[in-house]
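Review this:
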Amino acid sequence: MMDMYYNIAFEPRNVVATEARLDAIYKAAKAGLKGDSLALAAGLMPSEFRKLQQFDPVAEMAEMKGRADSEMEAAMVIDAAIADGDAKMALEKLKHQHGWVAKQQINIDVDQRISITQALEQANMRVLEIVDAPYTVLTDSTKETDSANDAV
């Protein structure tokens, strides 16, 4: 058999950080996309996006700026809610942004004194008296029978 080679027309894409491309990267990052999803949303192949980040630091800056602007908008919304009196939002900001943790233990000091005679009276009220209850006496012969069955 004869090996055949086919010519495939291939023209590599010239990936340049144009203003439109940087704007697409910025918008995708602002929307919260990361990695391959960000590259595809910006109209790039993931490998092209990685190369672009390596060779042109402006592409990485566009991504960082998009994330920062998105975070700033969210922070402004949270601050506006807190200013309007949203206590739950204020508590969440304290927990997540400032590391605040609600106290997990409650100290209750109860100073109650009770006399020994009063404690005995309360204990006697709780005790049931059983009079003339039927009972069975176990003998040693019962134990021997049980141990003989266990040995078999």
